[in-house]
Amino acid sequence: MTKQQTAHIISHTHWDREWYLPYERHHIRLIELVDTLLDTLEQNPDFRSFFFDGQTIIIEDYLQVRPENRERLVRQIREGRIFIGPWYILQDAYLTSPEANVRNLQLGHQDAAVYGEVSKIGYFPDTFGLTGQIPQLMQQAGITNAFFGRGVKPTGFNNMVSDDGYESSFSELVWEGPDGSQVLGILFANWYSNGNEVPVDEEEARRFWERKLGDARQYAATDQLLFMNGCDHQPLQTDLPEAIRMAEKLHPEVNFVHSNFPDYIRAVEASLAGRSLSTVKGELRSQRTDGWGTLVNTASARVYLKQLNQRGQAMLEKVAEPLAVIAKLHGGEYPHHLLDYAWKTLLQNHPHDSICGCSVDEVHREMVTRFDKSYHTAEGIVEGSIQAITAAVDTSGFAAYGEEALPLIVTNTSGWSRTGTVTVELDAARQYLRDGLPLDENARRMKAVELDGRVLVDEQGQPIPCTVEDLGLSFGYDLPDDRFRQPYSCRKVRLTFEAAAVPALGLRTYAWVRPLGANGADVAGSAPAANLEAMASVPASLVHGARVLENDTLRVEVMADGSFTLEHKPSGKIYRDLGVYENTGDIGNEYMYRQPAGEVPLTTLGLNADIAVIEDTPYRASIEIAHEWEIPASADALLEEEQRALVYYPERLAQRAAATVTLKLRTVLRLERSGQGLEVKSYIDNAAKDHRLRMLFPADLAAASHRVDSMFELAERPNEPAPEWQNPSNAQHQQCFVDVAGENVGLTVANLGLHEYEILRDGRNTIAVTLLRSVGEMGDWGWFPTPEAQCLGEQTADLLLLPHSGDAVTSGAAAAAYQFQIPWTCAQAEVHAGSIPAVYSAVHWSGGTAAFSSMKLNKERGDVLLRWFNLTAEPCELELESALPAAAFYTSNILEAEGEELQPEGNASLKLPLGGHEITTVGIRLR
């Protein structure tokens, strides 16, 4: 007799919170689903359990409308019949930041623990590709498995040994991250709906199970067969117990169980004893397929969403959290409640059908509102923290400049010392309306404030070159904690200058003052001779001729067509033909790009441009390049016919229309005096439909592979696709940057929210970054027009080019690319003594190939948590010196659990080995 098999039937519904219907339309269906589930669980003990799709937001969404059912819901969770967590939402891992993925897991665990036990299931049912560090994240969260539906190609019993890194002989496999972390991978080889709508009727059930059992046996490595009873927004199958009894009747040799994931995992692990499985390593991007179904071009659908997301993530994790820590250490508050709210609001935009931009227009309109809500909350957190910090900074050194001295602070919340151009607005004088002066007198006094003769100085009294813009009479108000709002009139100015060597996770103090005379007296319009000499030593201009920008590291020359060369002086390498725009048709959809067959791409190479210098200061200079470019107005009429007929996008025959429109492009190249890179900002006035716009950066370096920033990883990818790849496009995901390097030289292209790139097979290893993609339908399983996905009107794109010697990590290019993501934060202060020095850093660290990721406060213990990750496979040593009042140091993980206590060396120096590609978190218990 053959060994009895067990069929694990797991009830679930994959709940895309919003997708082909707006959120509230899906929300209504969710309420109906959970109502039915609670009734069924209470009335039918044979209906054993249900899996809440791995995301706790389902509970929030349900109780928002059905608060009266809270006790019923909690009872079923605590009795082990509804399984919840471990995520807050099911995110797209490639389009969300590393820390956003961590916060997602933290919030999911936090919320699940309120109701019952957290499901330790690494659940990625429909994620559009999986990042390489997920096994390490799962292990650090106490999760030893990963369930997923995309990224690996199952080969079945006829291929007992996998012949490459991205195929598996079975649906069960070992998935190994770049650091060596391993989890048991369960591939939904027959999708996460392979047990959907199990028939009760005998004849239907006979046909159903004959097919389904055969499909599952084809890929299963053990006698434990998995059947997922549910699908996208699937209503509950309330008669499943009856259907299981019918299955048992038809197949007595199979043990049919209404199961759950923990029981299934335990059974599989027991059955695997002594068995070997295929091991897949690193990223799972469906790279060993024909390339038509990867869904990678969701990285460029509705680019504006990705840009809003980048802005919001950076504001929360890289600005609000670290500033709140510094504020807490000096008398302020750490607003856990507000941060949780801001994060949750942001994370609600991170599901794969949301952040990917592949839903109907109504969904994405609501996303913009959520992005704004989260961002404005983060702004409020930053404002509160800055107020606490400025109140604690010692600015008493500026008292010698008299009552008119206006101190200000520049904060650097990145993990590295930073130099760059900053802008701050100051109130040169205020007149509160509470003083009772007539409004015209208020205005007269503010207009009479004398601004001439002032200079900007640093904490040592050294003058700093500065541009001053008089913003004139303005209105402002205070919102005190203990009284009504306090409006005032003010004279506002804007200062722009280079902030040099601002410490990591710290600040530097400046002041706008009237210079002191030799005897210490205020002398308007003059400065000490030594100071004037220092100012005179600053280079007068970075502009050399009408089309050249140059500093000590870089030389940029703009050609007549707007393309430019970039010389990296330390290496002598010159990059040519940079900044060319490429335009092609796109007859695909929000999921996938499809260029019309036979189309030759259009470019701006040879198209004359208007070129002008628009900024010329000692600390920064800018050149503007303007194009007016005639391109096809849209696809031809055949495209809509094919869309309505549901023609599979690779098989479409549509071409671009003969009619044209003007695509107006304005490109600004900006070079800072101390900059190691060239900023490129593109302003796009898009009047065309059904097209893609990219910017090209030929590297002209011999390299078979390149490196790209991903989740806690600098992943290496081949420039050539796999042999089975048929899609002419080989676009891929990036987070902050992509780097092509040859022998001792390379080019890093960083971005703000531009997550799609391609290394062209053009003999030059050109880095092509997608700036805009315009399409008119959602795609997938039907015809869903999405006119707003054409992204008509004003669009922008931000890039930073970082040529370097050596590799991107040791050269500092990677660190500069990470800093590019983070806005400076500046604020006006007052003259007073304080506990924070004029130049301050909360944490000093060094670590070779380590990259800093976050600084935040733990909610339960109030400890400071710091996180780094190793960008390379080679181990390094992390050395940490803290200005924090540390009582103890300890290792932690992404869930912020206390681990092994660490012993600092000497006074406050901590040394910690960091393995290759390791993510490490250090906790600091405060005194």
From TrEMBL:
Classification via SMART domains: Alpha-mann_mid (SM00872)
Originating organism: Paenibacillus rhizoplanae
Gene3D superfamilies from the UniProt entry: 2.60.40.2210, Glycoside hydrolase 38, N terminal domain, Glycoside hydrolase family 38, central domain, Golgi alpha-mannosidase II, domain 4
UniProt keyword Hydrolase, yes or no: yes
Similarity remark: Belongs to the glycosyl hydrolase 38 family.
Top-level taxon in the UniProt lineage: Bacteria
Ranges where the Glycoside hydrolase family 38 central domain occurs: 298-371
Official protein name in the record: Alpha-mannosidase
Annotated InterPro entries: Gal_mutarotase_sf_dom, GH38_beta-1, GH38_C, Glyco_hydro/deAcase_b/a-brl, Glyco_hydro_38_C, Glyco_hydro_38_cen, Glyco_hydro_38_cen_sf, Glyco_hydro_38_N
Keywords for the protein's UniProt record, in alphabetical order: Glycosidase, Hydrolase, Metal-binding
